[in-house]
Design goal:
9 helices; binds zinc ion; binds D-xylitol-5-phosphate; TIM Barrel; 8-stranded parallel β-sheet; about 220 residues; globular; alpha/beta
Length: about 220
């Protein structure tokens, strides 16, 4: 289970808005909509003011799903925990540039663990913060809300960084966008060069998850 090659539009539903009592069913529903990956938001109550899931939940989900597990670590000291997440079944791990001193070292460690690597930047973090490390990673994650919660409003100014990053990395590295993505905002992110669209509320607040995924897809064609 690997990230799809850059260039195709992929939708990564974020289970943060899903029914946590029925996660296995939620994964089956999104898989039948033809998505290849699921976005798993990990929060520690320190880096962000919210707490979600950790390796034990991910390991259980691994047992019931063949989707690429795209783990977004919103935690302090991510290097301490990446091995546990890979052992639990993470295929791709994104850490926040604001949480690490040596991003290159962590990218190397992730690759040694057999996992692809992602760097994320918060809305207020400038592109320069990731400039040297970004060519080494497999996917860049641009936050278009302040991390911590689903259902916030898309920040158009933050999305403009996607174009700057695309300029630096060229076409071979994926750019993922996370926060307030729906059929109205997804095409904006795609026009700047994003090819991986995280969506929480836009999918899981709808009773028909499959139709909601298809609506985002159709808006980007
Ligand atoms: C927020 C998370 C997101 C969140 C997105 O900190 O990183 O992945 O679930 O939710 P929506 O799409 O509702 O903004
Ligand atoms: Zn996320």
């Amino acid at each position: 289970m690997r990230l799809a090659k850059a260039g195709t539009i992929e939708i990564a539903p974020s289970i943060l808005s899903a029914d946590f009592a029925k996660l296995a069913d939620e994964l089956t529903a999104i898989e039948s909509a033809g998505v290849s990956m699921v976005h798993l938001d990990v929060m520690d109550g320190h880096f962000v003011p919210n707490i979600t899931i950790g390796p034990p939940v991910i390991a259980k989900l691994r047992g019931v799903s063949g989707l690429v597990f795209d783990c977004h670590l919103m935690i302090t000291e991510p290097a301490k925990y990446v091995k546990a997440f890979v052992e639990a079944g993470a295929n791709h791990i994104t850490f926040h540039i604001e949480a690490v001193d040596k991003p290159q070292k962590l990218i190397d460690e992730l690759h040694e663990l057999g996992c692809t690597a992602g760097i994320c930047l918060n809305p207020e973090t400038p592109v320069e913060a990731i400039e040297t490390a970004v060519p080494l990673c497999d996917m860049v994650l641009v936050m278009t809300v302040h991390p911590g919660f689903s259902g916030q409003k898309f920040m158009p100014e933050a999305a403009k960084k996607i174009a700057e990053i695309r300029e630096i990395i060229g076409p071979e590295i994926r750019i993922e966008v996370d926060g307030g993505i729906d059929p109205q905002t997804a095409p904006i992110a795609v026009s700047y060069g994003a090819d991986t669209l995280v969506a929480g509320q836009a999918i899981f607040s709808k009773s028909d998850r499959i139709a909601a995924i298809n609506a985002i897809r159709a808006a980007c064609e």
